[in-house]
Amino acid sequence: MWYFCDVFGRIWPSPFILFYLLAFWIAPAFLHPQCLDFKPPFQPQQELEFCQMYKYFGCCDYARDQELMAKYYRIMDNFDYYGYSNCAAYVQDLLCQECSPYAAHLFDAEDPSTPLRTIPGLCPDYCSQFHSKCRSFLTLLSDDPRLSELQHDQHRLCQYLELDDPDYCYPHLLSNERLTKNLGRTAADSEGCLQLCLEEVANGLRNPLAMVHANDGTHRFFIAEQVGLVWVYLPDRSKLEKPFLNITKAVLTSPWEGDERGFLGLTFHPNFKYNGKLYVYYSVEVGFDERIRISEFRISSTDMNVVDHRSERIILEIDEPASNHNGGQLLFADDGYLYIFTGDGGMAGDPFGKFGNAQNKSALLGKVLRIDVDDNEKGPLYRIPPDNPFVHEPNARPEVFAYGVRNMWRCSVDRGDPNTKEGKGRIFCGDVGQNKYEEVDIVEKGQNYGWRAKEGFSCYDKKLCANSSLDDVLPIYAYPHKMGKSVTGGYVYRGCENPNLNGMYIFGDFMSGRLMSLKENRNTHNWEYSEVCMGVGLTCSFPGLINNYYPYIISFAEDEAGELYFMSTEIPSATSPTGVVYKIADPSRRAPPGKCHHEPLSVRVRSNLIPFEPKETLIGVHVPTKHPRLSNPEEPPDTGSKDWLQELLDIFREQDEQITPTPFTPTTPKPIRTSRQRKGRRRKSKHKNGAVRLVGDEEGRGDRGRVEVYANGEWGTVCDDLWNTKNAIVVCRQLGFHHALKAAKHAEFGEGTNLKIILDDVQCEGTEETLLDCQHAGIGTHNCAHYEDAGVICGKSGLE
């Protein structure tokens, strides 16, 4: 145990110091430290002088610490030496609990139905000691009239100051290892799945597939829809009514779900603030040919929020032999050059030519291209950087920077560690696989990324794979199609607001809806995987945070300050307005107040503004009202009731081994089809269509198990594709439970191999009577196996 000495020379055990020494250790989930401003605690930028027990982690910055110290001296000036020597430490203790990581709980601030305390909740033994020595200080510490009434009655006073939950009273809180040893660390479940939360930023978008900033100091962000519209959002999240760019008439796309054509990429020139240039990547139809087009535009001379549509200059066009694998990423790297990421031309297996487009350096498809678009007002629209790797190779296109890629979907440049700049300039890409593996690559000059010889780490074309001249670079990570079937590349987090996430590459999968992360081991330089889950229990119960998202993860984004976002949609169609932009938040620790503050440059707005109205909500969390303090301390308390947070902790302690939250893992929904009834009479069954049962729990508990549903005269299992809390709610409510605690996946309660798979791709609203009433692929129609059997954990109360 570590110790520290406060301003009065007292020695204190400090479990909070462990946070400082083990800043990125991953903590078990479910605890809910919270400050009086309803936000997570933080590590102060400047060490506290007065409330030193919280100098490494808590809810006070240096300025607030100084204010509390000044208040302390104002109080102590009222007393003589005897009062000072006996009560100074007590006064300091009580004042400093505002800095506790659990301040919201100590002061009853986390529940608006109860009055905010002016004195923190005290443990009875500590309260008795305080009363016997320093009760005259109470009226100076607080203006609560009840305290002056009870000042001379120790029993009633301490009952009034007591918390319902003895674990959270001061000072026992400091020695409660369960509450203190993991403070400030990114929460994770028993399997290491990181518990993060989200903040809704924009909604009502049609397949939002790019969100970029102009790096011009305005902190605007620009969101592109697949149909060819780009919208401007201001820092307050209001949207300009007039589009920034509208090339819908030129863009080739369709309403078909999964159509890969359309407006695919957008980036601003590094000197946009001065030259007004931006670049777009989109699909076009020229005669009977489909092409990808990279064009340059300029900003309007009269409106900084609108593109001059007459300024378009076509930088490059490439014929597309098929409608898929169109690539779509544009970015400027640290060298100032424009990078273009093309797909391999489509169809399956890159069938073009002897070795495919990706391995053919004379083709522009299946490549990373690098060109120079500076000073292009006269002469060629682009130039070849002199250090491009194949400029002197006969028959190779000089634009080629790297090759052997299949269809890189979403790439990003690492800003580097905010302090050391370690990692700065690395280009990360997700490369979509064929039929077995998805991969993440770091793109480097002149390298071959293996396709079509390899897919992930394995051989795809065995003959090419055996070629000794392949000399390919392996991905930093690859995952099989049981985890997801279409990687969406992300970003290395380098923002300010979530210090624990620094250096973590966060990405996702479009088909399965998984959020994932990689972090480089500094010693081995291997990339270590952690899944990202939405926070369970009270983890995300902070104002403005949610714990759910639409399943089709289309793209990731970074704002001008480096904070991380992703875009997903409920229906993956270019015409469906179900797209939402989410900001990623770590509920375990925030940056110190004021550290991340920035002043955006003013934006002259000529368009009407549409205020942002969030539509998403926190789900699966029911916080019961805490029992208010007794107005009459002599009234006997309700001994049969528990403080809600203690109830939560007790249940989580009991169920820690069973509850293993997993993220959204949906796949592409299939059209609803109704199975035909068999001919002939059926024997009358005692079960009704849609009946459910839970089986497979090793301890025989009736509130959890593998979900089996009765349909058309037989029992069967449910596949976990698209399985989520709303589906679980339908099952649990049907069985007489009030709540669903978990939507279990991956055959957590065993495989029902003796049964058919009855349902797949189930999508419920949570209000249906049975799973059969929900959208699904059709009774008996599926594309999964029993290792994906779904299950649930139900509860009689929201915290059970």
UniProtKB/TrEMBL annotation:
Among Pfam families, the record links this protein to: Folate_rec, GSDH, SRCR
GO CC field: extracellular region; membrane
List, for all copies, the residue spans of the domain called SRCR: 692-795
Q: Which PROSITE patterns match?
A: SRCR_2
Ranges of biased composition (kind: Basic residues): 673-690
Q: Which UniProt keywords apply?
A: Disulfide bond, Glycoprotein, Membrane, Secreted, Signal, Transmembrane, Transmembrane helix
Main subcellular location of this protein, as a coarse class: secreted
Residues that span the membrane, as ranges? 12-31
Tell where it localizes: Secreted
Q: Which cysteines are joined by disulfide bonds?
A: C764-C774
Ranges where the record places region Disordered: 656-691
InterPro entries referenced in this protein's UniProt entry, alphabetically:
6-blade_b-propeller_TolB-like, Folate_rcpt-like, Glc/Sorbosone_DH, Quinoprot_gluc/sorb_DH_b-prop, SRCR, SRCR-like_dom_sf
Q: Which family does it belong to?
A: Belongs to the HHIP family.
Q: What is this protein called?
A: HHIP-like protein 1
Biological classification of the source: Eukaryota, Metazoa, Chordata, Craniata, Vertebrata
Chain's gene name? hhipl1
